[in-house]
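Private note to self, pasted from the team thread so I don't lose it. Backbone tokens:
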């Protein structure tokens, strides 16, 4: 049997054991079988699991003060020739307003977006002053797979993936907390990333991932 010189384990103790068994593998078939078994356990347990890359433009913990797809905003006009507009920011981050057409709102703070609209309405209205307010900053998220209470949930932002999973009753006995897929539509494409909630569940410090409106959280089945 020919062994790869690079042992595929992240755990140093397990790698050391693998190397030791490898040296004895020419004369000891049980040692070979044991190392192969350890390899399978490591791969299944997630030590060498290939995870999907993070999604682009992640939501920050300050998402409540920045506009995001799914937010409902109100644009009030000082010029009485145009009625006030209440719109939900589309998944492409835009809204459509009278006279100026589409405007990108997502990712901007409310005052910045308001100033942008005032600038764009100059010359189109006698009074270009507008007032932008955030009417609703919630996110609707689908939690599916091996959750105790799969379903569609509406959260106030900011909400983390961990909080969303806990709201759905947590990971079931058959689910894998280290293999959770977060799927999101970004620029018209459906993208996914893999999230490992096991360290968070164990109380270890982790960097949280925040949900956006329209996200789908799928908890995969555990192999054990």
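Design output:
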């Amino acid at each position: 049997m020919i062994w790869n010189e690079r042992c595929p384990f992240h755990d140093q103790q397990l790698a050391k054991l693998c190397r030791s068994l490898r040296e004895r593998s020419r004369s000891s078939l049980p040692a070979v079988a044991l190392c192969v078994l350890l390899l399978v356990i490591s791969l299944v347990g997630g030590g060498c699991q290939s995870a999907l890359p993070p999604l682009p433009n992640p939501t920050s913990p300050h998402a409540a003060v920045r506009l995001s797809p799914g937010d409902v905003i109100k644009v009030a006009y000082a010029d009485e020739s145009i009625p006030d507009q209440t719109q939900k920011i589309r998944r492409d981050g835009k809204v459509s307003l009278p006279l100026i057409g589409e405007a990108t709102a997502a990712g901007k703070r409310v005052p910045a977006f308001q100033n942008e609209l005032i600038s764009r309405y100059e010359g189109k209205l006698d009074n270009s002053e507008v007032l932008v307010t955030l009417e609703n900053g919630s996110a609707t998220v689908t939690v599916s797979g091996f959750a105790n209470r799969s379903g569609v949930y509406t959260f106030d932002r900011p909400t983390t993936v961990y909080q969303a999973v806990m709201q759905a009753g947590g990971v079931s006995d058959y689910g894998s907390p280290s293999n959770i897929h977060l799927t999101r539509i970004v620029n018209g494409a459906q993208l996914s990333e893999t999230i490992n909630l096991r360290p968070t569940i164990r109380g270890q410090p982790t960097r949280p991932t925040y949900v956006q409106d329209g996200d789908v959280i799928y908890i995969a089945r555990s192999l054990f």
